[in-house]
Amino acid sequence: MASQLVHQPAKGLGLAFVGGFALSIDIPLIRLAGSDPYTVMLARGLGMAFVLWLYWRFFADRSDMPRDLFADRNFLTIGALSGLNSIFFALAVFNTSTANVVFILAFNAMLAALLSWPVTGEKPSKATWAAIVTTIVGVGIIVADGLGTGNLLGDLFALICAAMIALSLSLARRSGKDLSLAPGFGGLVTAAFALPMTLWTATMPTAPLWLLADVLILVPLAGITLWLAPRFIPAPQVALFYLLETVLAPLWVWMIFAELPSRNVYIGGSLVVAGIAGHGAWELVQLRRRRQQRKSQREQQAREQAAQELAAREQAQLQQLQQLQHQLQDRELV
Fold it and tell me: How many domains does the chain fold into?
């Protein structure tokens, strides 16, 4: 299975970075919108579904995504997991501390690494494990002051959420398909869950334009790129980029709302960024090394082929000389 999977680190890391960066702006825009959680959940689900439907409607012919989406088992499975992931994330936020949620979700990369081998046949490298451990330590430092203040049920919801992210990324990687539209189906699942509560408790956003910008631009962009990235790089590497939100969101909040991040955010955030950037640099170095090896192999094969062709020509010339000698000898005898 692993030998059949595409491995294009530059493209995969670029997609994952764009997705993680877009995701990091999600929280500041939600705060600017000033809406209740269920309205946000409903808007995000419907917005994701609508934008990705437009993407499929006008760009499906330019890619190799499945034509009949609802007949594709991978699309339905990953879309449903994406929707359930959003639901369990909301339940976790309502039932435990934010620090606990963020820290537990940081384990999605480790869970993806544990699932990647049996699901896709790809064994995570030592560099990937080092990046995972580094980022978990960094997130732990960021949320250290708030850890342990939640409850077991909320922590369990957060763990289920992390496991669903890891499983979804691993399944997307195994499929080898363009499943960037799967979050659109997940948006419908999320919206179906949020609709009853929205009708019961909904309040109008104080700044609806910010909410529209979030659900029609940033969330779909993050969904497309993060779910397309596993096609090109292993699932644990994609999962690492989810942690950019943990690092960058406090910086955006500081810039917009003047809420100064704590010293732990700087220290832990530096570790997370170092882990992700270091791993990305290592992947690109390995890619360059593999390209050089393939180039050397091609050059060696070309040299060997040229030598074989030269030897064949020399052998042919030698045979011609021998034939001429035999002909001359025959004439002398005559």
Answer: 1
